[in-house]
Write a structure and sequence with these properties.
Oligomer: heterotrimer
Largest interface: A-B, 43 and 53 residues
Radius of gyration of chain B: 21 Å
Number of domains of chain C: 2
Strand order of the largest sheet of chain C: 1-2-5-4-3
Radius of gyration of chain C: 22 Å
Strand content of chain B: 5-15%
Number of domains of chain B: 1
Shape of chain C: globular
Strand order of the largest sheet of chain B: 3-4-5
Helix content of chain B: 40-55%
Number of strands of chain C: 7
Chains: A mainly alpha, B alpha+beta, C alpha/beta
Order of helices and strands of chain C: HHEEHEEEEHEHH
Shape of chain B: globular
Largest sheet of chain B: 3 strands, antiparallel
Chain lengths: 388, 381, 202
């Protein structure tokens, strides 16, 4: 099937038909991925929590997502009587469409994306920032105080974390000298950017968690505080658009972006040797799949074990730690790229400076969160502990 | 809501053009541990005022007990304090014993203490799990804690025949003897509880986000805690070493060697630490008790068919997982309690909620409420 | 003892507390105070009049020898013909001693000075006693129902003239005809029982 389509796209065909077919493929793959991701998250988190996760629907619960989808699609579409009709009905789409649009610029395999944009990175960052409007629309239109509070929180959080995210990818594009994703990937044939730029990689991971409102940054939708935040009044198909499509498609998109920009995508470690000839796309797909899976599972592990931050701590972390270090990284990158010509020394300098910055950031974070009284308290409590 | 005289008036500052927002949390809210309701007056994210509303779970346990036989009223203790049922029963049957002049045999005393301490462990596990969930851990602390609680509930079911509503203690002893493998089961459960406590310890205690969310949140000074009538871990977290098991020993608690963990700061983190350590101390008590437990009868030989204590009154207090649980029992010579007043520990601890919360953020209100560890059935009775 | 005697409420025999008990400290701190000291099953009890109550409580809190800083419990009791009582259970962290103070309050004029100015713990307890016994605590900052509904201002469930069955009738009354049908409908409540269907026993 994929081979047929591969051949199809190789043919010089009508550009509109080509785009349409590629879009259809993305939609299908995205839907399947989202359902798979929901299943994986439930299983993975279940294992962390010493549970089995879904087991009843299909073998090992594999059909659970299908059952959930059927249930959500056939549910009654409820809208509060006092809700603002248009804003309430449109908010899920405004949230979802930008996430889908980011997928269009991602090169999943060599020369295979919906569109290869010269300013791909810029486009992705710009488009994904629109999501917050959907949050605010939903929060305002629901006529619910939890929703309003959640919307205001999400406005603060998503817009704030957009900036470190931009700085992180900007640092990489400086190293690559391009905003075209294909160029950035091709440039990583021997060393992935995560090694050259460990600090931006970490900032990207953190900011991604915040952008997707995943734990420990799920403050806008925090269940024990604002009960789902902007989405508290949504149910049925609208809720499934928000929850399933937006959240998991966003997770997938950001993980693929991270694996392409930082982990070398389909380029690292085998390069574009083409030793499998026409079947290169198989190992390229496998590479991207493995790298993005690694990122996704890392994020799931983090979100399964960490408590939620408070909004002021979250903002302080963004503005006082991530942002200054992101700026610093860009300044240092500029100096290094300006004055070092040899590729080897340049790479070593990039790694050394970014690594040093990473250590500095970790130390500053440690200093900021260190509570001197805590250690004494735990020590006193441990001293009272006469049994182990 | 605006007509509620209990609510403070909305403050309005014409120059800044801002108004405070009233946010109603509960009675149906994931973080209110039942049907507690609080109205937060917030300025942005900061809590300016808090108005607690209780009574949604009021079932008149005190009134109903007045219409019951002394033994029938035991069941209401389970339903009042549904996370530490054995502790509540222990307090009630001791109050009856004090009035009726009954002395339980040794074996019954040991069985009661073992079960009450195990119940304290299960209650604290419930707290640890729920507290993590309040703070946003994605159910991980909950499942960790519930694994241990499940072991304990299985043991309680083997002993009493019921998972939650035990009604196993009797004035003068216990209803029937424990199963033959009780000692081995208790020892195994104790080992498991220590493992579970260690798991939760490693999951939460040193987690930077957990510390940031709980340290210095909901501080209570010793003076305020005493003034509000707070007791139990809330009081001990402030640094006051007061435990009824040690300071006014009841039952056979004076025979055991255990430490009383105290905090130093009176904040949410100290309350968490105190409860975590109390699990270990309870295990210590249970292990001593199970070694000392003698054979013998489980009820006094001469037990009247209908209890008819002489006229009089007693205020029996016990150290429950949530604090001082008191039974004020008045007898006027009939087969039914003339007046049964339950001094609920959660009720008094909850009274300090407003004092602790005002000035913190909305998210902290949830943390502080979780750190008090209320049982709504006990608050409303 | 005949069955009738058994059913009649008995009075507790008053046992004087041993000399040197907390009751003596009260007599020392408040000379001329009319009080009845007795020994309970665990604590020493002193019974005082309503007008002395706040004075005694104030001394209990602020006198150095008494120093009762912890209000364990505050409850109302209905002794039917002997009137109501407000019972304070106090504890001192300083001296580690207990006292039970019983203040008599006549049922027809149920009011007593509030203790909220001494212990903030008294706040909710007094609101509850107001709910359950209709005792008016003078000087309480916010004496509104706490456990009972906001409009339940004239009905005091824990008083002995409210036996359980009529209370349930009353609940059926306020909960409306449908709830009333489930059980007994009090006569004169304004609700009619739904007529039983043909051939069906009511």
């Amino acid at each position: 099937m994929a081979l047929v389509l591969w051949g199809l796209f190789g043919v010089d065909m009508n550009v509109w038909l080509d785009a349409f077919l590629r879009l259809q493929l993305i939609v299908i793959v995205m839907t399947v991925t989202v359902m798979a991701l929901i299943y994986v998250e439930r299983k993975f988190v279940g294992r962390i929590q010493m549970r089995l996760g879904p087991m009843r629907t299909g073998p090992y619960g594999t059909l659970q997502s299908v059952a959930d989808a059927v249930k959500l699609l056939t549910k009654e579409d409820l809208r509060p009587a006092t809700a603002d009709f248009w804003l309430f009905e449109l908010a899920p789409y405004v949230t979802f469409v930008p996430v889908f649009m980011t997928l269009l610029a991602l090169p999943f395999m060599e020369d295979w994306g919906v569109r290869d944009l010269q300013l791909g990175l810029f486009y992705i960052v710009a488009v994904s920032g629109v999501t917050v409007i959907g949050y605010i629309m939903a929060g305002w239109a629901s006529d619910n105080k939890y929703a309003l509070l959640g919307a205001v929180r999400s406005a603060a959080q998503l817009i704030s974390y957009e900036i470190p995210l931009i700085l992180a990818v900007l640092a990489v594009s400086m190293v690559a000298g391009s905003l075209n994703l294909n160029d950035i990937i091709l440039q990583q044939d021997t060393i992935p950017n995560a090694l050259l730029q460990p600090l931006p990689f970490l900032i990207l991971l953190t900011a991604t968690l915040a952008e997707l409102s995943r734990r420990p940054f799920d403050i806008p939708i925090g269940e024990s505080e604002v009960v789902g935040g902007p989405w508290v009044e949504y149910s049925g198909i609208r809720w499934s658009i928000i929850f399933a499509l937006t959240e998991y498609a966003g997770l997938w998109g950001m993980a693929v972006l991270g694996s392409l920009v930082f982990l070398g995508g389909w380029e690292f470690p085998f390069g574009t040797s083409g030793f499998w000839g026409d079947f290169d796309f198989l190992y390229q797909m496998a590479l991207v799949f493995a790298k993005s899976s690694f990122l996704i599972l890392t994020m799931m592990l983090i979100s399964a074990t960490f408590p939620r931050l408070r909004i002021d701590q979250l903002m302080a972390f963004c503005w006082k730690i991530l942002l200054p270090f992101g700026f610093l990284q860009i300044v240092i990158n500029g100096i290094v790229l300006m004055y070092l010509d040899s590729e080897v020394t340049r790479d070593i300098a990039l790694f050394a400076t970014s690594g040093a910055l990473l250590v500095a950031m970790a130390y500053v974070t440690y200093l900021a969160t260190r509570q001197p009284s805590r250690e004494a308290r735990v020590a006193a409590m441990v001293a009272a502990r006469s049994i182990q | 809501m605006t007509n509620d005289p209990d609510l403070p008036a909305m403050t309005y500052d014409p120059e800044l053009e801002t108004i405070d927002l009233n946010i109603n949390i509960g009675p149906q809210h994931p973080a209110t541990h039942g049907v507690f309701r609080m109205v937060l007056v917030v300025d942005g994210e900061r809590v300016e005022d808090l108005v607690p509303h209780i009574g949604y779970m009021h079932r008149g346990a005190e009134k109903l007990s007045e219409h019951m036989d002394y033994r029938q009223a035991i069941g209401y203790q389970d339903r009042t304090e549904y996370l530490a049922q054995f502790n509540a029963e222990l307090c009630y049957v001791q109050a009856v014993e004090k009035l009726a002049g009954l002395v339980p045999p040794e074996r019954a005393e040991y069985i009661r203490v073992i079960l009450a301490e195990l119940n304290r462990i299960s209650s604290h596990f419930m707290f640890l799990g729920a507290f993590g969930t309040d703070l946003g851990v994605f159910g991980t602390s909950f499942t960790y804690a519930f694994r241990e609680r499940e072991n304990l509930l299985d043991l309680f079911e083997e002993v009493s025949g019921d998972r939650l509503m035990y009604a196993y203690f009797r004035p003068g002893g216990v209803a029937w003897d424990v199963p033959h493998n009780f000692v081995e089961r208790v020892k195994w459960v104790c080992d498991q509880a220590l493992i579970g406590a260690k798991d939760l310890d490693t999951l939460l205690t040193d987690n930077e986000i957990f510390i940031a969310r709980t340290l210095n949140i909901g501080k209570l000074s010793i003076e305020d805690a005493i003034d509000f009538g707070a007791s139990g871990p809330v009081l001990r977290a402030c640094g006051l070493k007061f435990d009824l098991r040690r300071d006014e020993p009841y039952s056979i608690y004076d025979r055991f060697d255990f430490d009383i963990p105290v905090g130093s700061n009176g904040d949410s983190y100290d309350r968490y630490l105190v409860r975590l350590e109390e699990i270990r101390q309870s295990v210590r008590i249970v292990r001593q008790a199970i070694d000392q437990m003698p054979d013998g009868p489980i009820l006094p030989e001469k037990l009247p068919r209908a209890l008819r204590p002489a006229a009089g009154e007693v205020y029996m207090r016990c150290e429950n997982p949530r604090g001082e649980y008191g039974i004020y029992l008045i007898s006027r010579g009939s087969t039914q309690p003339y007046r049964l007043r339950i001094r609920s520990s959660s009720f008094c601890n909850l009274a300090a909620l407003k004092h602790m919360t005002v000035g913190h953020y909305v998210a902290d209100a949830v943390t502080i409420l979780g750190s008090i560890d209320i049982v709504l059935c006990e608050v409303d009775r | 003892m005949s069955p009738e005697d058994r059913r009649r409420p008995q009075e507790a025999t008053i046992v004087a507390p041993p000399p040197g008990s907390v009751a003596d400290l009260f007599a020392e701190a408040l000379p001329g105070l009319e009080m009845t000291p007795m020994q309970g099953a665990l604590d020493v009890i002193i019974q005082i009049g309503r007008d002395d109550a706040h004075r005694v409580l104030e001394a209990a809190k602020h006198n150095d020898k008494l120093a009762f800083d912890f209000l364990r419990n505050l409850s109302g009791v209905d002794y039917e013909e002997q009137g109501l009582e407000v019972v304070y259970h106090l504890y001192s962290f300083k001296h580690r001693h207990n006292i039970t103070i019983r203040a008599k309050v006549p049922a027809e004029d149920a009011r007593i000075q509030s203790a909220t100015d001494l212990w903030r713990a008294a706040d909710w307890h007094e609101r509850e006693a107001r709910d359950m016994f209709g005792i008016d605590f003078e000087g309480h900052p916010n004496l509104v129902p706490i456990l009972l509904p906001d409009d339940m201002l004239d009905h005091f469930p824990l008083r002995k003239d409210n036996p359980l069955a009529p209370l349930e009738e009353w609940q059926g009354e306020i909960l409306g005809p449908k709830m009333g049908d489930a059980g007994y409908i009090p006569p004169g409540s304004g609700f009619e029982a739904t007529p039983a269907a043909e051939g069906e026993e009511a």
